[in-house]
Amino acid sequence: MNATLKTILLTVLTLSAFTIAMIELTGVSTTAFINKLNGNSAGIVPNKAEDEQRDAEVKAMPKTSFDFPESKHDFGTIHEGDKVRWSYKFKNTGDKPLMISNVVVSCGCTAPFYSKAPIAPGIDGEITLEFNSAGKEGKVVKNALVNANVDNSPYSIGFVAEVLPREKK
User: Fold this and answer.
1) What's the CA gap between 63 and 54, in Å, rounded?
2) Can you list the domains of the chain with their CATH numbers?
3) What is the DSSP code string of 41-98?
4) Does the pLDDT value for residue 42 go beyond 70?
5) Tens digits of residue pLDDT in 105-132
6) φ, ψ (nearest 5 deg) of residue 96
7) Average pLDDT over all residues of the chain
8) Is residue 158 very low, low, confident or very high in pLDDT (cuts 50, 70, 90)?
9) Taking the alpha carbons of 89, 87, 111, 72 in that order, is the dihedral positive or negative?
10) Model-level pTM?
11) Is the peptide bond before 154 cis (omega within 30 degrees of 0)?
């Protein structure tokens, strides 16, 4: 092999190793990475056509309304590497079924979980956000946008946390 080709191959190999190391060090899981790229919160490899079809169906549904007693949460002080979860409760306050099309997170460190089933009028539901604080020292402010068949869609929910360095053993 000539020197130029060896240099190119070595550069590609080095960049690949660096990318893998960065993904591991930041704590971005495969699921969160897939969620970030494709907006899927079920934790499975997404089907983009199905997601687009669901979005179109939800947009075509009659509008309803929902109420979140708490849309922002404070985790307080946690340590770097901790995984914390919070469930945001809501109620379908309208007179039509409520359907969430997706929950878009602001970072791969946050994974949303929610039901894809319709929520009848007067019934409660919840959206859970799980935050992986690996590599996120300092004050953290994260938001997620809830897309649903409501007038105020997308609706913002979020959290704050103060992430302290993990103590060395």
Assistant:
1) 15
2) 3-164 (2.60.40.10)
3) -SSS---HHHHHHHHHHHHHSPPB-EE-S-SEEEEEEEETT-EEEEEEEEEE-SSS-B
4) no
5) 988 899 999 998 999 999 999 999 999 9
6) -125, 160
7) 82
8) very high
9) positive
10) 0.69
11) yes
Non-local (6+) Cβ contacts of 13 within 8 A are none
Q: Residue 51 — pLDDT band, cuts 50, 70, 90?
A: confident
What does the alpha-carbon distance between residue 66 and residue 35 come to, in Å, rounded to a whole number? 25
Total number of residues shown for the chain: 169
Residue 66 has pLDDT above 80, yes or no: yes
* Tokens read off for 30: 């495969």
> Which 3-state string (H, E, C) describes 117-155?
CCECCCCEEEEEEEEECCCCCEEEEEEEEEEECECCCCE
Tokens of 51: 């997601």
Cα angle 35, 40, 41 (rounded to 5 degrees) comes to: 85
Cα–Cα distance, 21 to 150 (Å, whole number): 42
Burial (0-12, 13-18, 19+ Cβ within 10 Å), 12: exposed
Does residue 142 surpass a pLDDT of 90? yes
